[in-house]
Amino acid sequence: MPGAHVDLAMIGLPAWRTSLSTTNAGETPDAIRAVLPRYSDAIIGDRGVRDGIRSIADLTIVDCGNVHEPDGPEGEKRALAAVARAAGLADMVVALGGDNSVTVASALGTWGGALPSAGLVTLDAHYDLRDGVNNGSPVRRLVEAGLAGTRIVQIGIADFANSRRYAERARDYGITVVHRDELHRRPMSDVMAEALDIAGSGGGPVHVDLDVDVCDRSVAPGCPASVPGGISAYELRLAARAAGADRRVRSVDIAEVDSTADAEDGRTVRLAALCVLEVAAGLALR
After folding, report:
1. Residue 261's CB: how many other CB atoms inside 10 A?
2. What is the pLDDT of residues 86-96, one digit of tens each?
3. Is the pLDDT of residue 8 over 60?
4. Which residues lie across from 150 on neighbouring strands?
5. Among 27, 95, 32, which residue's Cα sits nearest to residue 269?
């Protein structure tokens, strides 16, 4: 890993072993990397050339490779340490999952000693407040590690995807929940602005979890838990760019895509890759 400071560090966390659903999400970090060269580096202004053209090529970006076997207690320690090294190198860390268990190492590795003032925003149909250590428990584990529930915002929580028990747990933790239906009434830009203000209210670093299964199954068939009625690909991309553009956000993870279960056209992996680019675009536009 280069020693010089960079704008963005990308790191693969190919976790899959503790997933509650059958997945080969460990294959996805490399699948995302393979897709990225399909896209240009140009960021076009709202009015095209008149408003100017920017480029993510202006950023210094480093790929830190994949963490070997990031599952289990020892694997998670390796992942956390690798993310911490990346965070010491870069203004922004983008972690490529892997299942949603990667949120723990991604967030804690970036926050370090700033955990007491840190915040979390999730784009996810699920609370991820389950018991145990799995892809359904990262938010609960972060709270138990010391993250204040009042600085957690969960966007896209869906009906029929969560039990009442976890809804009550979210309430008891003081988590701000933005139901999927609210996103029909409010633009994602407004929701993200509010979420980042809440998550950043402690003055510490914010981590954003982009769980791609928050999206409608038509655009995310490679996510085992995606369902009809989720958010659009465009909304997820807006959230990713908003995360990249906010100076309080130090890290983003992209999770829950199984590249081996994707549609023939690779639409889910392409969406995940575009989220990487949107984070970079937001960073370039700061």
Report:
1. 17
2. 999 999 999 99
3. yes
4. none
5. 32
- CA-nearest of 228, 237, 229, 238 to 270 is 237
Residue (of 29, 2, 30, 13) closest to 90 by Cα position? 2
pLDDT > 90 fraction of the chain, expressed in percent and rounded:
95
Question: Judging by beta carbons within 10 Å of its beta carbon (0-12, 13-18, 19+), is residue 93 exposed, middle or buried?
Answer: buried
pLDDT tens profile 135-181:
999 999 999 999 999 999 999 999 999 999 999 999 999 999 999 99
Whether pTM exceeds 0.90: yes
pLDDT tens per residue, range 114-123: 999 999 999 9
* Residue at 154: amino acid letter: Q
**CB neighbourhood size of 190 (10 A):** 11
Question: Residue 253's beta-bridge partner residues?
Answer: 95, 209
pLDDT, tens only, 11-22 = 999 999 999 989
The amino acid present at 72, given as its one-letter code, is G
Q: Which domains does the chain have, with CATH numbers?
A: 6-284 (3.40.800.10)
249 contacts: CB under 8 Å, gap ≥ 6: 92, 196, 205, 206, 207, 208, 243
Whether the per-residue pLDDT at 49 is higher than 80: the answer is no
Q: What angle do CA 20, 26, 27 make, to 5 degrees?
A: 130
Structure tokens at 132: 């145990």
